[in-house]
């Protein structure tokens, strides 16, 4: 009896639910349903817009990253192209062969660093320390008068072009394996004029409008005498000991371009 009564009640409840479902929707119910549908569409639209924005942001980020990588890869090539023509002008106007104080380095190393600096210059101090720590062991030692030393050949050498006030200051500032342009040699000032690089207080005496201040590290190809880069300080700071590999790559590119356009 109880089971029958329970089943009957369930049947009646289901009938009432079905009757309600078949009743016409009131204006209030219709408005609420419309509002729900509109809200759902807006939510889907917002979600879709957000996904599209995220997609575009991702694409723009990937594009920016690709451009940055390509710029970094091509910057070295651009530097070689820009400096190659300048180096040719230098070579035609005033060949490096006329500077006797550079010949040993140029003839006995693949790459020659010209370091313009001074002991009194505070900006030179950290650069000098960096050169000594990162490159000191790699540099071609200065000639010592022994004929066997003339047969040495290194990847790298450095010639110090001093802006010191006297020879004593210059000698005290020299680090291991540095070669120097003698203080009293005309080469010292002529090299500064040639590369338009000097201390500010030297400009008047040298009668030049300098392009580069001290400290400056100019990287030359030993065999061709071409300028590989004027930004040696920045590149050494950025790459550390690996900068030698970078300069060797510039050397290969410079040689290839010289062969192509000569």
UniProtKB/TrEMBL annotation:
Gene3D superfamilies associated with the record: Glutaredoxin
All copies of domain Thioredoxin-like fold, residue ranges: 110-221
Superkingdom of origin organism: Eukaryota
Membrane-crossing residue ranges in chain numbering: 54-74
Disordered: region residues: 20-46
InterPro entries: RdCVF2, Thioredoxin-like_fold, Thioredoxin-like_sf
SUPFAM superfamilies reported in the protein's UniProt record: Thioredoxin-like
Biased composition (Basic and acidic residues): 37-46
GO-annotated biological processes: photoreceptor cell maintenance
Keywords recorded for this protein, A-Z: Membrane, Transmembrane, Transmembrane helix
The name this protein goes by in its record: Thioredoxin-like fold domain-containing protein
Natural source organism: Fistulifera solaris (Oleaginous diatom)
């Amino acid at each position: 009896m109880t089971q029958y009564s329970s089943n009957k009640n369930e049947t009646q409840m289901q009938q009432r639910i079905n009757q309600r479902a078949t009743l016409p929707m009131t204006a209030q119910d219709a408005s609420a349903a419309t509002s729900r549908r509109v809200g759902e569409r807006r939510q889907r639209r917002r979600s879709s817009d957000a996904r599209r924005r995220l997609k575009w942001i991702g694409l723009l980020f990937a594009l920016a990253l690709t451009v940055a990588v390509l710029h970094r890869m091509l910057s070295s090539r651009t530097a070689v192209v820009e400096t190659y023509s300048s180096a040719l002008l230098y070579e035609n106007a005033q060949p490096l062969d006329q500077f006797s104080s550079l010949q040993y380095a140029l003839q006995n190393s693949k790459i020659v660093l010209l370091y313009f600096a001074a002991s009194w210059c505070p900006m030179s101090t950290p650069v000098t320390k960096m050169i000594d720590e990162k490159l000191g062991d790699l540099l071609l030692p200065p000639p010592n008068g022994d004929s066997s030393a003339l047969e040495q050949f290194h990847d790298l050498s450095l010639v110090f072009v001093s802006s010191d006030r006297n020879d004593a200051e210059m000698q005290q500032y020299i680090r291991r394996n540095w070669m120097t342009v003698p203080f009293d040699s005309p080469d010292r000032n002529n090299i500064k004029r040639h590369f338009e690089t000097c201390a500010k207080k030297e400009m008047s005496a040298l009668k030049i409008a300098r392009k580069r201040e001290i400290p400056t590290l100019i990287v030359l190809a030993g065999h061709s005498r071409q300028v590989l880069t004027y930004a040696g300080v920045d590149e050494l700071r950025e790459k550390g000991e690996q900068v030698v590999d970078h300069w060797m790559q510039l050397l290969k590119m410079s040689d290839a371009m010289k062969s192509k356009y000569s």
